[in-house]
Amino acid sequence: MKVADILRVKGSTLFTVTPQASLWSAVQTMAENDIGSVVVMDRGEVVGMLTFREVLGRVHDNGGAVGDGSVGAAMAAPRIVSPDADVMDLRRMLLEEHTRYLPVVDGRTLMGVVSFYDVAKAVLEEQSYENRMLKAYIRDWPEQEQVGN
Known about the structure:
Elements: H1 3-10, E1 16-17, H2 23-32, E2 37-42, E3 45-51, H3 52-61, H4 71-74, H5 87-96, E4 101-106, E5 109-115, H6 116-139
Parallel strand pairs: 1-2
Antiparallel strand pairs: 2-3, 4-5
């Protein structure tokens, strides 16, 4: 299974902000749309990711307030993945780098964002499908002819 397969099932809704946007406006976007991240874009390029982890870091630094900083001051450098990447490689990357969200970029075009949740769901669905196919195969297994009759 490829990353592009996950995006096909997930859909193509994207939420982006600019580095100059206020951190508060990005938090509002994330809360209103029930999402854990936004992609930070500047002049058509992915320049960062803002996730709840970075937001919580700023809230901590500001003594419990989001503050009036910009997205650019809070964002993390993006780790980008290709739509052709294998999901097993993606799983390994997410685990090793302790990352929950990765932008998917084809050339210079942002295709979407895959999350740890998206990957877990896709793998579970794939395994469930394989399990159903194996059970159907076993159920339809032809009876063995008895030897020696």
